[in-house]
From TrEMBL:
Keyword Hydrolase in annotation: no
Pfam entry (one): RVT_1
Domain annotation Reverse transcriptase: ranges: 1-253
Organism: Stegodyphus mimosarum (African social velvet spider)
Stored InterPro entries: DNA/RNA_pol_sf, RT_dom
Protein name: Putative RNA-directed DNA polymerase from transposon BS
PANTHER family (alphabetical): REVERSE TRANSCRIPTASE DOMAIN-CONTAINING PROTEIN
Domain of life: Eukaryota
GO MF annotations, alphabetized: RNA-directed DNA polymerase activity
Keywords annotated in UniProt: Nucleotidyltransferase, RNA-directed DNA polymerase, Transferase
Amino acid sequence: MIPKPGKNHMQTDGFRPISLLPGLSKLYERILLARMKVHLQKLPPEQFGFRQHLSTTKQLVRITDFVGQALHNNLNTAILMLDVAKAFDRVWHEGLICKLIDLDFERELILVLLSFISNRTFKVSVGNSLSTKRIMLSGIPQGSVLGPILYLFYVADFPKIHYNSNAILACYADDTAVAVKSANVNHAIKKLQENVPYIENWCKRWKVRINAQKSQLLIVRKRKKNARLKMELLLFNEPVPIVNKAKYLGITINNRLTWTPHIENTRSHALRVMKCLYPIIGKFSKLDLYKKRLIYLSTIRPIMTYAAPAWATASEKDIEKLQKVQNKFLRISTNAHYYVRNEVLHKDMKIEPLNQFIRKINASFFKEDSQPMISQLPAHVTTGHAPSPLAPALLDSRFGQILSSAPTVQTSDDSRNTSSRMLDNLGISGTWNSKAIWFM
């Protein structure tokens, strides 16, 4: 059990169960994963989690592009960020097997996966006390090789019936966001509300729990757009909190699509890590400069440049805040006097200024061969060094339309009959009705 940061550790919800599996078991899981790769192509295109050539950065670029395009066209964007409670721990085993059948998994592979997730036991140890053995009735093991992939198949049919060019669904495993743009902010919220029943029905059918109070609704609009909100978004008959900024996949997005809050959070995080590393990078450290340089390049700089293409429109003033963190590390690690110029420290440590490094990351990202839609975007020349709170032109030309809306996925009667026959062949008796799948 690993404590969750920022949670009450006097409650069971404040801990995350992690499965410690033997090395031989993980080797066998990797063999199974190789057999499952052919089925990964069946996952919906908006699911970016744990898939080859996809990442959190690409999903974030997709979202910021959608919001930036809306601002450029004088539209408002309502973003609903769902909080799935205990996503991996609440996976319904029978429902997962049924979805694997619908995806045409081989019978033998399904039987092996059923054996993998079934009859798992656990004990709880507190001090010298040990509980009795209990059977886990749901969930997939966290810390396993197959766990994240099985979860992707479990949520592969997340409802997306009414999404079009004015709406977008973004998923990275259990981190789900739904965004709708409209000229009227209340109309955008209304469109979101129209899709909520489909989400609620899907959650009830597949025993997925969404916490409405921990979910967030972010309204992104221009400063001059001060239309009052006349309606609230209800999820399971509970109002979803409206926030001015929200964190999604590690970056902070605010209601103006400016990046000062994200830069401030990133700067604070980097300084906290640097403080923890001070004993091995300070003037009393016995490490040579080469090792200190490696520590910076592998720990602190990745924190400051995470998902840089997503916040490529950050102003130079914000980037300078991160540059000061780099300057501080160089001065501490080299024990340089105050009169030594920062340019000299960068040259001696062979570390390029942060703005140049971020520019290099962005250029590499948008020219990547694995992203043909991005590489075909037209070039854009911008004037000035600090973008406006919207940076519409820069967002419009640099990002473009990265991923179009996903097609409608519907379950036919033939697939239901096929699933029932497969269940019988697997030795699992059950029936599938219009609301849920029941196994006996």
